[in-house]
Amino acid sequence: MAQRPLSLQCLEQNKVLVSPIMSFLSKSTVLLMFVLCCTSFTSTEAYDALDPNGNITIKWDVVNWTPDGYVAVVTIYNYQQYRHMEAPGWSLGWTWANNEVIWSMFGGQTTEQGDCSRFKGNIPRCCKKSPTVVDLSPRTPRNQKIANCCKGGLISSMVQDPANAASSFQLSVGAAGTTNETIRIPKNITLKTPGPGYTCGPAKIVRPTRFISADKRRVTQALMTWNITCTYSQFLAPKAPTCCVSLSSFHNKTIAPCPTCSCGCRRNNTVSRGCVDPKSPHVPGPGQKNTITPLVQCTSHMCPIKIQWHLKLNYKDYWRATIIITNLNYHMNYTQWNLVVQHPNFDNLTQVFGSKYKALTSLSTTNDTAMLWGIKHYNDVLMQAGRHGKVHLELLFRKDKATFTSKKGWAFPQRIYFNGDRCVMPPPDAYPLVA
């Protein structure tokens, strides 16, 4: 019998050793690729190409020392271009480093008092290790207010209303440090606006804030200041969409409706607990409190907000589009609503009817993104579902004959966002075609 080559003998002898090593390397490679994919996915979802520098900065200014702690003014600044804080408003939470308590507050309130049994006589306003603070309403008495407070938790975006893009409250902290060396900075900052979606970094000590008096003749400064930066991430936000888009055109009777089950599916029973039939005698009336949980009108898409883009007219030198925003949510008045629309022809936008407009700065070299929002005291509040739950806008574009076409869906938007949430678009093959 012929003798086998030495190399083959060596391979067989080491087979038991090689197999586990290859198996280990294979598993390690798969695990590494999985971790890298997850990391990449998270960072991609957290990055917003439409607002790459947008964030919410929370500034904590220590303005006075007390016998057992300090007085601080906390201000939430919204530096985002189009995302704002809507009803029922923001809530801010943290964890004390030691056993601090809150003796008093102005311009805000804690949601719970906590266990204050260790105190005799004067009882603190809040003894919880991890308190949560919410804003006060505009109807709050003056003796409980401070400057820039009491907006019901609503904070506008920087583009829409910069004068109302911040909110403040004051608190007196006890059982705390009384100097810059002994004070302890709170940890685990959380921000909800009102739902999740924001992740906050650790507090960083910065240069003390300088305050200018009303007559601009005197400048004072905080005793100590620290900042917390919070960024928005779709990865942390609720996964279910909140809006959908339908498309139509004057030259085609076909309408591309919102895709079925865009925001959820209607239950297959005669009495659906998840939605309301508008013909039902038990339709909720106006004036109901704004709540996070939507109560929507029964539709095939089940979205609280429906947006229709209609190609209205095609002139020789211009073309016109109509946008109809319909509120199908019986639980919400959308105050200071806004739309962000991506379309390749915004460079040629001539006039906007029924709303305000601003081109959003992005990394693109062309102007293809616009922010639209309501006119104050006219249509800046999108009312609850019902007869008044609609807003109409119109856009007039100058026609660039080298690029304009009604074919292949060019005249329709690429993406639409409502209040910062990306809306579900119809599939490309459903777009209205040329008649």
UniProtKB/TrEMBL annotation:
Keywords: Glycoprotein, GPI-anchor, Lipoprotein, Membrane, Signal. GO terms for cellular component: plasma membrane; side of membrane. This is COBRA-like protein. One of its GO terms (biological process) is plant-type cell wall cellulose biosynthetic process. Belongs to the COBRA family. Residues 242-432 form the COBRA C-terminal domain. It comes from the Eukaryota. PANTHER family: PROTEIN COBRA. InterPro entries: COB_C, COBRA_pln. It is found in: Cell membrane. Its main location: membrane. It is a lipid-anchor; GPI-anchor.
